[in-house]
Automatic annotation (TrEMBL):
Naturally occurring in which organism (per UniProt): Neopipo cinnamomea
Keyword annotations from UniProtKB, A to Z: Membrane, Signal, Transmembrane, Transmembrane helix
Protein name: LHPL6 protein
Signal peptide span: 1-21
Annotated compartments: Membrane
Length: 139
């Protein structure tokens, strides 16, 4: 198994993959914000939610649905900011995962990653990480 990566490159590839996987898992989990509503524990993320209020027209009152799930459509996400957050975070996670998988392939295939490709990949990773971090900090 020939590799085009140095020892530092191999460590970078594995750490990149672990960070990208953690970012993607975090993106898909609905536990970004935790709280309570109508005396029930609620949580939600960019496109998933758990224990959310709905209007019960037959009883003319608001009831809590105690289950987790995605919003029915992209437009059902509560605000434009959350929709933008979903797109930006998803793109950031996608870029991080693409670069990480390419780096892992560089561990197995010789001459796949040159010094220039490594620098460009690191730049893409930096941008992907900034997209994910900027959304997470509210900056």
């Amino acid at each position: 198994m020939a590799s085009s990566l140095t020892c530092a490159g191999v460590i970078w590839a594995f750490l990149s993959f672990l960070c990208a996987a953690a970012s993607c898992v975090g993106f898909f989990m609905p536990y970004w914000l935790l709280g309570s509503q109508l005396e029930k524990s609620v949580s939600f993320g960019t496109f998933r939610r758990c224990s959310y209020p709905v209007r019960d027209e037959s009883r003319q009152m608001t009831v809590m649905v105690e289950q987790c799930g995605r919003y029915a459509s992209f437009q059902a996400i509560p605000s434009a900011e959350w929709r933008i957050c979903t797109v930006v975070t998803g793109l950031g996670c996608g870029l991080l995962l693409l670069v990480a998988l390419t780096a892992l392939m560089g561990c197995c295939v010789s001459e796949l990653i040159s010094r220039t490709v490594g620098r460009v990949a690191g730049g893409i990773q930096f941008l992907g990480g900034k997209c994910s971090c900027r959304e997470g900090t509210g900056a």
